[in-house]
Amino acid sequence: MLTRFAPSPTGELHLGHAFSAILAHDAARAAGGAFHLRIDDIDGSRSREAFVGAALADLEWLGLTFDGAPVRQSQHLGDYAAALAGLRARGLVYPCFCTRADIAASLAAPHGAPADGTALYPGTCRHLGAAERGRRLAQEPHCWRLDMASAVAIAGPLVWEEEGRGPRAADPAAHGDVVLARKDAPASYHLASTIDDAAMGVTLVVRGADLIASTDVHRLLQALLGFATPVYRHHALVCGADGTRLAKRDGAAALAALRAAGVDGRALADDLRAGRLPAGYSLQMP
Ligand code: GLU
C-alpha cells in the first residue's frame, strides 16, 4: 500500500486538504504501507515556495508523518516531455493554437472538468494540414491535446476500482480532446499526475470527489502509457456554510490561520477522522 498527498503550492492548505491528507495517511499506516508527499509545482507562475513550507508545517501540526523526501513535479519535467513525445510519435496528440478565450474552459483543470459537453474543445486544430501545422508550430504558442477519439479507439473499454464500491466504468470521451501540455506549463495536471502516480508506485489514490471526472482521463492515460491502475477513493468534500466546497481563497478555513490561532492540530485531525467538523463546516458528496 502506497498513498500520497499531492498539494499544489498555489495557496494555503485548508480543512479540505487536511481531511484528504489524513485519509491518505491513515490508509497507508493502517496497512503498514507508505505515505508520500508530492508537491504539484508544474505551474511555475503560480507556485510559491512559501506555500511548500507552510504545507510541511501544516502536516506536522496535524501529526501526519510522510515517508521519504517530498517528490516535486518541477523535477520531472523531462518525464512528461518524454511521454508526450511518445504519444506524438503514435499520432495521439496534436498541437493546438487556439487562443486563451477558446480554451479557457479546458484549462480549468484539475477541478471541474466539463461533463455536460458544453465546454468541450471543438477540435479546430485537430484538422489542420501538415504544412500549416508545421509552419504554425515554429511560430505560435501552442498546447498539446489528446486526440480523444483515436485514444479511446486504441484503449477500448476501461474501468477502475473505487475502493469498497467495486468497478467504475471510465468515460474519457466525455472530456473531449483534453490538454496534456499547456502553453504556459510543460504538462497538464492530467499528464503529470498520471505519470507521477505510476512512477511513485501509488497503489491507492485518495482525493476529493471533485476530481472523480479526472479519473476518467487518468485511466485512459494509464492504458496508453502502459501503467498499472491504482485503486481510487474519492472522498466527500469539506464544505463551508454556503454548502460549496472550500477554495484556497477561504482564508478562515486555512490551516495556517488555525495553527496561528492556537488550535491543537492533532485534536483537529482526530475530530476530522471522526467526521466532526468545526462549526460552519460539513462533509458533502458532490
Ligand atoms: N495537485 C492536485 C490538487 O491539489 C492533486 C489532485 C490529486 O490528488 O490528484 O488538486
From TrEMBL:
InterPro entries membership: aa-tRNA-synth_I_CS (IPR001412), Glu/Gln-tRNA-synth (IPR000924), Glu/Gln-tRNA-synth_Ib_cat-dom (IPR020058), GluQ/Sye (IPR049940), Rossmann-like_a/b/a_fold (IPR014729)
Superkingdom, natural source: Bacteria
Listed GO biological process terms: glutamyl-tRNA aminoacylation
Keywords of this entry: Aminoacyl-tRNA synthetase, ATP-binding, Ligase, Metal-binding, Nucleotide-binding, Protein biosynthesis, Zinc
Domain Glutamyl/glutaminyl-tRNA synthetase class Ib catalytic span(s) in chain numbering: 2-254
MF terms in GO: ATP binding; glutamate-tRNA ligase activity
Protein name, as recorded: Glutamyl-Q tRNA(Asp) synthetase
Provenance organism: Sphingopyxis terrae subsp. ummariensis
